[in-house]
Amino acid sequence: MTYGIVIVSHVPEIAAGLPKLLTQVAAHIDITHAGGTDDNDIGTSMLKISSAFDENTADELLAFYDLGSAKMNLEMAIEMADKPVHLYNTALIEGAYTAATLLEAGVSLPDVEKQLKPLVIK
Question: Which intervals of the chain form a coiled coil (predicted)?
Fold first, then answer.
């Protein structure tokens, strides 16, 4: 079983930039992203999110997002995904960074999720 990470941001540059940071600590984890609307404006796109799911070679995905409205598009994309996707409502950078470093170290998904709990936004 392999795990990958998907980053979703309203800003295309944030979506593309965060994986650059994460690959410094998780070179063997597939990290894909979706940022902005279909016209690359501020917002999110279910089609871009679905493409990020499809492009990720992992068997199972952990998805992180920046703002609550991205959650709606993520949930729609998850319903149509061909692989399991776990959605996390954490601080984007801290949550994705924590997951990436732990997955790179071979930590199990349940243990990764335990470490993410303190980062959940209530």
Answer: none
Report pLDDT digits (tens) over 39-96.
999 999 999 999 999 999 999 999 999 998 899 999 999 999 999 999 999 999 999 9
- Residues 3-28: what's their mean pLDDT? 97
**Catalytic-role residue among 10, 28, 33, 86:** 10
Distance CA 122, CA 107 (A): 25
Could you write out the DSSP letters of every residue in the chain?
Answer: --EEEEEEESSHHHHHHHHHHHTTT-TTS-EEEEES-TTSSSS--HHHHHHHHHH--SSEEEEEESSHHHHHHHHHHHHH-SS-EEEE-B-HHHHHHHHHHHHHTT--HHHHHHHHGGGB--
In the chain, domain spans:
3-119
Confidence of residue 102 (pLDDT cuts 50, 70, 90): very high
pTM as predicted: 0.96
Residue 10 bears catalytic tag: yes
